[in-house]
Amino acid sequence: MTEALRSWVVGIAGAAMVTAIAMTVTPEGRVKRVVSLVCGLMTVVALIKPIVGFDYGSFSEYLAQYKSEAEAFSADIEATNENLTRRIIEERSEAYILDKGKSLGMTDLKAAVQLTWCVDGFWYPSGVSLETNADETARQALGRDIEAELGIPTDEINWSQDDE
């Protein structure tokens, strides 16, 4: 495809050079008008030649190949974007939980958020595993905050204690 484009540009450039030389060396008068007409026709032929001899089958194959490459590239980008979006949601959810736990006095809190893919096309937090030695009152308060702000039901919050 690029070879055809290159040869077309070279053909136009060649026609323009021949036209310029012919117009320069031709004397004024009736001969110059004839040469001007011939040069104009030669330039038009150079412009139209790719359309007349165009290989539509080859062009169609090129477009199909280009489309499949573009779709593959797009799929890779979408998968990468989906993974990045998932990771961002996980990190922000975990940061929220850790900040909320810190405000409740849980200095040893560790959080791991689980996400689920929704049929509507997005990730949402569906569960969380928390590790802390905090008392039951602080755990219940954090559980209510997680359910209210992140939409994770309290029965999907898994508590464990740090055995260190």
Briefly, what is this?
This protein has 164 residues and is of the alpha+beta class. The chain contains four helices and three strands; from the N terminus they run αααββαβ.
Structural overview:
With 164 residues, the protein is of the alpha+beta class. The protein has helices spanning 2-25, 30-52, 56-103, 136-150; strands spanning 110-118, 122-131, 157-160. Strands 1-2-3 form a 3-stranded mixed beta sheet, covered by helices on one side. Strand 2, helix 4 (136-150) and strand 3 (157-160) form a beta-alpha-beta unit. Helix 3 (56-103) runs antiparallel to helix 4. The radius of gyration is 36 Å and the shape is rod-shaped. The mean pLDDT is 87.
Distance between the termini: 68 Å
| Sheet with the most strands, sense and barrel status | 3 strands, mixed
Beta-strand content bin: 5-15%
Number of helices: 4
Estimated helix fraction: 55-70%
Mean pLDDT figure = 87
Low-pLDDT windows of residues: none
Choose one word for the global shape: rod-shaped
Q: What is the number of E strands? A: 3
Tell me the structural class.
Answer: alpha+beta
Tell me the strand order in the biggest sheet.
1-2-3
The ordered H/E elements are HHHEEHE
Radius of gyration: 36 Å
